[in-house]
Design brief:
The structure holds two protein chains of two kinds. Chain A is mostly helical. In chain A, 64% of the residues lie in helices and 0% in strands. Chain A has a domain of 66 residues. Chain B is 44% helix and 14% strand. Classes of the chains: A mainly alpha, B alpha/beta. At the A-B interface, helix 1, helix 2, helix 3, helix 4 and helix 5 of A face helix 1, helix 2, strand 1, helix 4 and helix 6 of B.
């Protein structure tokens, strides 16, 4: 994004006008503006508004698709975002997307309340809201239970996009699970049909030339089943927890109705819903049950992933391509070698200083730093000093090894800065090196 | 009382849409966010590590013993230097300390065999030696943050002759207390299988795990809250800084992650004296230097119960604890923290 760009501002203004025009059309067809509306703002023609083409998209209003009382306010925001998001830079866009997502969820809540409010009194509106949420989670729960072997087509049992739950604990691993992709496993009988034909695959005997190959596929199929089971248990537990949250919310609201507290805005309701969810979730997440099913899920996912990786590597090897295992071997050896190098360097440093101190004692016991007055202009004798650095040293007026040998620590540091050495002078101990070179 | 009216709901939705769509233009004024505000020099580099020295603009009396900050491998260290008026580093400098910091950089697949030995007895030790030589001091002051605090405890136990004073902030010590959610979650995970399969552990995965400790607040409610400040470029910029930091999570070197989770989170070996790093055993009794242990009372990542047991295990007879009424991050960035935490650390160090 070039945020200061006048084109950008122009585009933004245009989109802004477009958005408000559409919004005004949608809510204002009865002649009222959103802020002053006193009469029923609902317009029966709303369905034809280009900004609310799909009223049934809310997963929490499964039976509302054709109900004209429910507007689709979140849809307008979505469409607006589609228009402006290409103008934003990545980090800004990512953050703003999260805001828009949350805004949409919030509006879904508001639009339901609004819809219910057309025909019901306020207490009933809240009950309808709760019933609707409950139904949403129950449906989700049912979908999870029935889609036992449908990892390849599990859209139906995906997490409801609702109040951040979709971004919660479940989604992290879900994303990772999806990233397995399983695209690297070709020709597993039955798998490509969207469903593991367990019996056929597992019971067929592994024979002949392809025996090993087939055994591996059988292992993968077995791990896949285990993963799907763990996934199902995990998601079901989340769905159950969500149902408990709805009940807890119902309880909190009934307490609120009977005492002095007040819920007068969608925002109040939203905040309460977040509170209740967080409370129920943190209880659930600290149970032994959660510890077990979370671990089982991760372990099952990793076991599957490990085996599919191994399978894929085999295919890579077959066509003589490098693999992650080979790279790991190299990296591991390299790291061992680097460790050894550091040890050796330290050892050399220790020995060198020992020798230096002995030489010092012999020649000039009282002096602090030893520099033998001998002319040596070959700076490249210092380890790590090439022609370019020699040139830089010359520009700083350093011509001889003596000059370096005589330098104090602070001077060496300063020199390092001047030649842009990034600590090289201290690291490679130029002072000591220069001294030793002169002593030999 | 529940008094929500349909027309009010329409107004609320309308307002949300208005604020979001109008607020988008304010992003134009946010400009560059950057990472870290206090001027600094890089005085040493090795692999991806950078050792920063912060440039002081105060001419007041300075502690001759340098202070080295060891940050966690998780997330990025500019949390301690987020903005001009919210910088723990600046606060420490204003309170007489000569501050250095290790920036670990971003580990990648080539770093996956970096062990805790490489990090602690390698990188940290070399940085400490550089500062000892640079300042001509036998011992320096060490300040560890979160996991960096645990690393500092290990380091100081293995090299007590190089550490004059040790400060730990929001540092886990006892990993098996009742209210430790992260610890609760990892107990049934096969870490060897995870690390062998994944290699480095992705920053996104860790970040997602942290967010999922309070998913409804952190991934939902927070963004409804920000809608209210979209019309204020300053407040928005502060929010974006924090937001950038939260999602800026480096990957974790596989072998270090393996040992850290297995020995510390699962095995709780730091307090039993069974952690072995390289060829050395970590014994907290070796910590005889003065210790200042700071924790946050509302810390959901490292609960106080995980930090405070430190006093039972160290060999020091000069141990002090400070608690801060806030969270894991608030202790570095909140206005209240700025007024109290760095001055207390500065004063404590300058007396020792």
């Amino acid at each position: 994004m070039t945020p200061t760009d006048s084109d950008w501002q122009g585009d933004w203004l245009k989109n802004q006008q477009h958005f408000w025009q559409s919004w005004a059309n949608m809510v204002g067809q009865s002649g009222s503006s959103p802020t002053t509306m006193g009469s029923n703002p609902f317009s029966p023609n709303m369905g034809s508004n280009p900004f609310s083409p799909n009223m049934g998209s809310n997963p929490f209003s499964p039976n509302m698709g054709s109900n004209p009382f429910f507007p689709d306010w979140s849809q307008t925001l979505d469409q607006w975002w589609q228009l402006v998001s290409p103008q934003a830079s990545d980090p800004v866009s990512e953050m703003f997307e999260r805001i828009v997502e949350t805004g949409k969820n919030f509006n879904k809540l508001a639009e339901q309340g609004f819809g219910f409010g057309q025909t019901q009194n306020q207490e009933d509106v809240v009950q309808s809201w709760l019933d609707n949420m409950k139904k949403g989670f129950e449906d989700w729960s049912k979908q999870i239970s029935t889609n036992k072997f449908s990892l390849f087509d599990n859209k139906d049992s995906s997490i409801p996009e609702w109040m951040g739950l979709n971004k919660g604990a479940l989604e992290i691993w879900d994303t990772l699970a999806n990233s397995i992709g399983l695209g690297g496993i070709p020709d597993i009988p039955g798998l490509d049909k969207g469903k593991v034909e367990v019996d056929r695959l597992l019971k067929s005997p592994a024979l002949g030339q392809w025996r090993e190959h087939q055994q591996q596929l059988q292992t993968i199929a077995q791990l896949l089943i285990e993963f799907q089971e763990a996934d199902q248990v995990y998601k079901l537990a989340f769905a159950q927890m969500s149902l408990r949250s709805v009940e807890a919310l119902r309880q909190r609201l009934s307490n609120i109705s009977s005492n002095e507290e007040k819920i007068s805005t969608v925002r109040d309701f939203y905040d309460l819903w977040v509170d209740v969810n967080e409370e129920i979730y943190s209880e659930f997440a600290m149970t032994d049950e959660y510890q077990v099913l979370h671990g089982d899920f991760v372990n099952a996912l990793m076991a599957l992933r490990k085996e599919t990786n191994a399978f894929t590597e085999k295919l890579y090897k077959a066509v003589n391509l490098p693999t992650r295992s080979e790279l790991n071997t190299i990296n591991k050896r390299l790291q061992e070698q680097r460790r050894e190098n550091i040890q050796l360097r330290n050892e050399i440093k220790r020995l060198a200083s020992q020798i230096a101190s002995k030489t010092k004692k012999k020649t000039k016991p009282s002096s602090k730093i030893q520099a033998i007055p001998k002319q040596d202009k070959d700076l490249s004798k210092i380890k790590g000093v090439g022609p370019k650095i020699v040139e830089k040293l010359h520009t700083q007026g350093i011509e001889t090894l003596e000059q370096i040998a005589k330098m104090q620590l602070a001077e060496l540091e300063k020199l390092d800065e001047q030649i842009g050495g990034n600590g090289r002078i201290l690291r490679d101990q130029w002072g000591i090196q220069a001294n030793q070179l002169l002593n030999h | 009382m529940i008094t929500m009216k349909p027309e009010e709901m329409l107004n609320e939705a309308s307002n949300i849409n208005k604020k979001i769509t109008e607020g988008f233009s304010n992003l134009a004024d946010v400009g560059e966010i950057g990472s870290g505000v206090t001027p600094r020099d890089t005085i040493y580099e090795e692999d991806k590590l950078k050792l920063f020295h912060y440039k002081s603009d105060t001419s007041g009396q300075k502690n001759p013993v340098p202070l080295l900050i060891v940050y966690a491998l998780v997330n990025r260290p500019y949390m301690a230097d987020l903005q001009e008026n919210r910088s723990t580093i600046k606060g420490l400098m204003d309170n007489g300390q000569d501050v250095y910091l290790i920036d670990w950089g971003y580990a990648d697949e080539a770093d996956q065999y970096l062990t805790m030995d490489d990090y602690i007895n390698g990188y940290i030790d070399r940085c400490v030696d550089i500062l000892r030589e640079r300042h001509n001091e036998e011992k320096i002051n060490l300040l560890g943050i979160c996991q960096g605090g645990t690393f500092s405890l290990c380091y100081s136990s293995m090299h007590p002759e190089k550490v004059r004073n040790l400060v730990t902030m929001v540092t886990p010590v006892d990993f098996h207390t009742q209210d430790n959610m992260l610890s609760h979650w990892v107990q049934n995970i096969d870490i060897d299988l995870l690390v062998d399969t994944q290699g480095n552990i992705s920053g996104d995965l860790l970040n997602g795990t942290f967010l999922s400790m309070k998913p409804y607040e952190l991934m939902g409610q927070k963004y409804i809250g920000v809608i209210d400040i979209l019309d204020s470029p300053d407040a928005l910029k502060n929010f974006m800084r924090m937001e950038q930091w939260i999602f800026d999570s480096p990957d974790q070197a596989a072998e270090t992650f393996r040992q850290f989770v297995k020995d510390f989170y699962q095995g709780n070996k730091l307090i039993s004296g069974d952690v072995v790093i390289g060829d050395k055993t970590v014994d907290l009794k070796n910590l005889t230097m003065p210790i200042l242990n700071i924790y946050a009372e509302q810390d959901h990542l490292v609960p106080p119960s995980a930090s405070t047991p430190l006093k039972e295990y160290v060999g020091s007879n000069d141990y002090k604890e400070i608690s801060f009424p806030g969270g894991h991050i608030g202790i570095y960035v909140s206005g209240r923290a700025q007024k109290t935490v760095p001055p207390e650390i500065g004063a404590w160090l300058s007396l020792r």
